[in-house]
Amino acid sequence: MRCVIVLLCVVLSVVVVRPLHATPDINAIDVNGADKVAVKKSDLSKKLLKNNNKDDGKRGAGKSKLRKLKKEKNPTEDGAQDKSSAKNPQQSLPVRNRLRSNLLKNYDKMVHPVQDHSKTVEVALGMAMIHVDLDEQSSILEVDAWLRQKWHDDFLTWEPADYENLTTIHFGLDEIWRPDIKLYNSADTGRTEVFGDIHTQFIVDHMGTVVWVPSAKFRAFCRIDLKLWPLETQACKLKFGSWTTHGAQVDLKLLGNQSTVERLDFYTRNKEWVILDTHAKRNEMKYECCEEMYPDITFQFILHRKSPFYRCAIIMPCLVTMLLVLSSFLLPPNAGEKIAVNSTCMIVSVLYLLYFLSTLPALSDQIPLIVLFYSNTLALVGIAIVLNICCLGITREKRYTSPPRVLRDLFSGALGRILCLGNYYNQISFTHQRLGTEMENMSDSPESERPEGEMDQQCSVPTEPALTGGSKDREWLLVAAGLERFFFLLYTIAFAIVSSSYI
């Protein structure tokens, strides 16, 4: 009975476990079975192994038949898939990576981007400014701007349909060719790179158009005209061109045919300088060393200084100094305060000249009019002090002789009336009239009939010099006042000429 049960279990295990290549659990049989059971067990295991091998063979034969049928239907599909996977391992990469890899493959950034080496690469330049400043002490123009550059690269074209309709892609500064555009009149000759930084990239479309808009701070030398400082107008230029190639290799043109410099919406106005106008122009120049023409793009800035500070701190004190010098000639000839006024004006002029010396550059071809104005004022003030000293000497020193008749008649006549010397002239006339009356009264008096010796003993009659001493002093006072009023007119004309030439 036990043997029957064991055989049934073995058959069931073979039927259920055979697909899984398993063997029946023979260990579950009781070990008390006879040797016959062990022999039967080994026979059964061998049969099972044979059956499994047969089934595996049948399955392998079926799979090989299916493969043969597929190959007969599509004999090139499997080979194409194998070849494509072997040749294009980048099919699994993102589309931008594949495009960059294909474009940069065998790309030489040192070669001009044209298929025909005889063709010219056209580079368009344009500028959009952010801030402008001018340093007159060093004669340097500083411009913060975007320099827009655009050209065509024949080696950077592709079909958008092959790359999921991708039309634009970015490249780094050191990946593709770029023109060697330099600022010719740069004040930073030691800087090798003035355009942007490592984060500025090229924008390339599928047609091969490359756009590059780096931001930079340009510092260029500018020829300064300080004739009308501090209210002058300056014209400064930025000249850009290729450093190593001539016009037959790299040609320059204006971007969008714009003849002016664009001002961005966030343009920062300078508090001192106002931009009156800007110009952009293409030029061609032929140097003595070479036969080729070298094009350049020149951006010109017309700047005008507009600052109320200079009017209040420089021009107004100058006008006040001039008025003080003129007013000193209107004081009485014997007033010593005029020397103090003119000395103060002289000190002010010297201090301003020292300020100009430390602020303005020393130019050999021109001198600012304001400097000439202060220097001329200093010279006139010095002359005025000398004249004041002479007039004080004339009026304060005791005089026993009359002034020259020419000067006396000149200042007591029509010129005296023009110079408003009537007060001094009337004093002299009144003195002469009074002295004349006194002399007549003395001659008509009874005492004049006495003997000469007795008369001298009783009273001393003033002689003619003693009687006319006061009149002579007044005549010299008239001459001194006439000289100062005459120099007042001369100084007024001189200051008017200097002021008109400046303003």
Tell me what the structure shows.
The chain has 503 residues and is of the alpha+beta class. It is 46% helix and 18% strand. It is built from 12 helices and 12 strands. It has helices at 2-17, 35-73, 77-87, 95-104, 308-328, 337-359, 369-396, 405-412, 414-418, 422-444, 452-458, 464-502; strands spanning 121-135, 140-152, 168-171, 181-183, 202-205, 209-212, 215-221, 233-242, 250-254, 262-263, 273-285, 294-305. The strands form 2 sheets. Strands 1, 2, 3, 5, 6, 7, 9 and 10 form an 8-stranded mixed sheet that branches. β1 and β2 form a beta hairpin. α7 (369-396) packs antiparallel against α12 (464-502). The longest helix has 39 residues, at 35-73. The protein is rod-shaped and about 170 Å long.
Quick summary:
This protein is 46% helix and 18% strand.
